[in-house]
Amino acid sequence: MIGSFIRYMKSDLDRVYVADIEEIDIIVWLSHLRDGTNRWGRPYSSRTIETYFRDVLVFFNWLVAHKHLEENPMADLKSPKTEKPLIRVFTEDELMRLDAACDREPKGRSLTQDERKALAARDRAFLWLLLSTGIRISEACGLLFADIDWDMGMIFVRGKGSKERKVPFGKVARQHLVVSPVCY
């Protein structure tokens, strides 16, 4: 990254020495990144531009700390803002296909109809619990029946870093979590 920054400074702004680079040059470079495209012809993401900015900032901080420069031309610049990515929502068709994938076709070691039905019920309960709550798979694997508060519609989740929280679950997840005789 530093190499492409230096090349841009040399070729586009005629800055041969790092000591010649000024704050305005860095602003022009950031603008070039915002308007430019990467080697695949796609625009740079805001996250990539922020990463490049941080890399160059660290480079200049190092130059100042090791007395190669007297002052950092980036000292007064603020890091560019990054866009928050939107969460992709499943379409109705995708949800139906996920639900249908829970049904098992007989193959290999043949399961009885009741076994396939029980496994499909388990898989559906797991799927809809994940979709309804947004918890991690590892958190769902650690759940116990005692962690479910049926009256409040909440589950007690133990997550990463020993964090514990209560998470609500929806009507569809509740329907699939209710233990039916087929699960025994």
From TrEMBL:
According to its UniProt entry, the protein's GO biological process terms are:
DNA integration; DNA recombination
Report keywords, A-Z. Answer: DNA recombination, DNA-binding
| Domain (Tyr recombinase): residue spans on this chain | 85-184
Q: Name one Pfam family in it.
A: Phage_integrase
GO terms for MF: DNA binding
Family per UniProt? Belongs to the 'phage' integrase family.
Family matches, as PANTHER family: INTEGRASE_RECOMBINASE PROTEIN MJ0367-RELATED, PHAGE INTEGRASE-RELATED
State what protein this is by name.
Integrase family protein
Organism (species)? Ktedonobacter racemifer DSM 44963
